[in-house]
Design goal:
This protein is α/β, with parallel strands linked by helices and about 300 residues long. The protein has nine helices and 13 strands.
Length: about 300
Amino acid sequence: MELRQLEHFVAVAEDGSFTKAARRLNYVQSALSVSVQGLERELGVRLFDRTTHRVALTAAGEAIVPTARRTLAAAEDTLDVAAAFKGVLRGRLRIGIMQAFTFIDVAAVLGEFHRLHPGVEIGVHPAAGGTAALLTELRQGTLDAAFVALIDPPVGMTTIPLGSEDLVLVAPPDKMPSGQRAVRLDALSDATFIDFPAGWGVRTVVDRAFAAAGVERQVTMEIADVATCLQLVGAGLGVALFPPSMVPADEPRIRVRPISPKITWHVVMATPAGRTSAAIDALIALVNEARALAQLP
């Protein structure tokens, strides 16, 4: 069994297609198919169910994918360690980033990392499925680090706290409850909410807070985009609970009020516990420098 065969197997598993995997790997499709078939013969199991329309992992294939990823990662780590002894960082960092937060400038951190370590390839993956999806990718080994919003410390992860905020009620003027005090959650039982999809950090913390208060709420729209969500609120289609750093100060169509009890949003950088590399250590060092410059606790 060769590492090349495992790389081919994982690529097809991720892309769900020999054609797409061959294109991504810049490899001849027929040769890719022969490579995977050779791996199947050596392992004595069928890894894929193939039809004219689709390629799907078998039960054996599903079970072997995580092991194959770990094997490939270990091989990469070996090369990285050897390069580090020569004073060079190499390899690849796959980083998941949530849509918006302002505690540190992640783009600036990654730019500085690239300047210092040009031999490391940086891949940035957006949080299409929110925090829950990013944590799953970390556990599966498809990400090396992720910037996520959490309520509870994730099992099997090492985290670096980046900041926290108390959420605020964001609403058009005619939908904002009267008064100047913090708005109680039970005063929002009849409100229509615009929120992020399930699995997003803000959605999770808000759902838990309303459940703890025994208050039901109506989520009429789920939007996987910060700017669009705020635009819909400004258009009068509902209210939302947001971190204040995400709310533009000059938006005339919305008002902001604190809520009671407080709902706090925590942002961290997470990495899989026990799995490190020289590149990950270098990234962590830069993140900690950014934390110190921003005077984060």
